[in-house]
């Protein structure tokens, strides 16, 4: 997932970029209409987040222009909450309209919803009891409720979902989820497993168990 953030407020843009990176989505920032147009022409983006008020133009005009050069979903993210602005933006080609201030959880949910509408099927899904994980969309739900995981938590759960009911050593988890062989002692796997456990519902049907002296295993909680 790659997102272009078009926002001239640099602190907000950095915060948005950090939040998107936190869930494993790549993102770039454009601070003006000119730079946004150039980046959209030469880069591939799944989603473009557009502010309306920009230093060298307005986001609505940019939205109309971008419709001719990219198939990315476009979401207006702006402090302007007038009904006329909303209607104007949607008529100009925006796929959604989010007003500031907003909760990051809502924005992420709206991005996922827009992608489902514009891109259709989110791709193959891994299922294990009440867990469903979409690798391409990098989303996961338990009993229909979306889980907000960090990039590393998602990567680790993906490894477990690809190897259910199988004991995985810490070295195997490091190699598969972190992407490198590790020599020596580290608690990075233990810490991430602990955080991942906190996300899983205690009333759910899956659990990550510790196999003492070996590693961890994802299994059904009633097995």
TrEMBL record:
Pfam families: Response_reg, Trans_reg_C
Function of the molecule: May play the central regulatory role in sporulation. It may be an element of the effector pathway responsible for the activation of sporulation genes in response to nutritional stress. Spo0A may act in concert with spo0H (a sigma factor) to control the expression of some genes that are critical to the sporulation process.
GO MF annotation list: phosphorelay response regulator activity; transcription cis-regulatory region binding
Post-translational modification 4-aspartylphosphate, affected residues: 51
Lineage, highest ranks first: Bacteria, Bacillati, Bacillota, Clostridia, Eubacteriales
Keyword Electron transport carried by entry: no
The UniProt record lists the keyword Repeat: no
Organism: Sulfobacillus thermosulfidooxidans (strain DSM 9293 / VKM B-1269 / AT-1)
Domain of life per record: Bacteria
GO biological-process terms attached to the record: regulation of DNA-templated transcription
DNA-binding region, residue intervals: 123-220
Ranges where the OmpR/PhoB-type domain occurs: 123-220
InterPro entries attached to this UniProt entry: CheY-like_superfamily (IPR011006), OmpR/PhoB-type_DNA-bd (IPR001867), Sig_transdc_resp-reg_receiver (IPR001789), WalR-like (IPR039420), WH-like_DNA-bd_sf (IPR036388)
GO cellular component terms given for this protein: cytosol; protein-DNA complex
Keyword terms of this UniProt record: DNA-binding, Phosphoprotein, Transcription, Transcription regulation, Two-component regulatory system
SUPFAM superfamilies attached to this UniProt entry: CheY-like (SSF52172)
Domain Response regulatory: 2-115
Protein name: Stage 0 sporulation protein A homolog
């Amino acid at each position: 997932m790659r997102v272009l953030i078009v926002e001239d407020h640099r602190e907000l843009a950095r915060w948005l970029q950090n939040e998107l990176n936190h869930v494993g989505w790549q993102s770039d920032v454009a601070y003006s209409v000119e730079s946004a147009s150039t980046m959209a022409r030469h880069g591939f983006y799944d989603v473009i987040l557009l502010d309306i008020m920009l230093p060298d133009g307005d986001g609505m005009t940019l939205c109309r222009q971008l419709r001719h050069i990219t198939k990315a979903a476009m979401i207006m993210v702006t402090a302007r909450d007038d009904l006329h602005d909303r209607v104007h933006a949607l008529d100009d080609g925006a796929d959604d309209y989010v007003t500031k201030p907003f909760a990051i959880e809502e924005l992420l949910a709206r991005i996922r919803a827009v992608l489902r509408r514009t891109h259709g099927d989110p791709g193959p899904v891994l299922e294990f009891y009440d867990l469903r994980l979409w690798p391409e969309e990098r989303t996961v739900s338990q009993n229909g409720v979306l889980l907000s995981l960090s990039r590393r938590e998602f990567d680790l759960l993906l490894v477990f979902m690809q190897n259910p009911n199988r004991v995985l050593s810490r070295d195997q988890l490091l190699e598969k989820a972190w992407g490198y062989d590790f020599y020596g002692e580290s608690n990075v796997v233990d810490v991430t497993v602990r955080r991942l456990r906190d996300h899983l519902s205690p009333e759910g049907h899956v659990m990550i168990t510790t196999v003492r002296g070996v590693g961890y295993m994802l299994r059904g909680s009633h097995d």
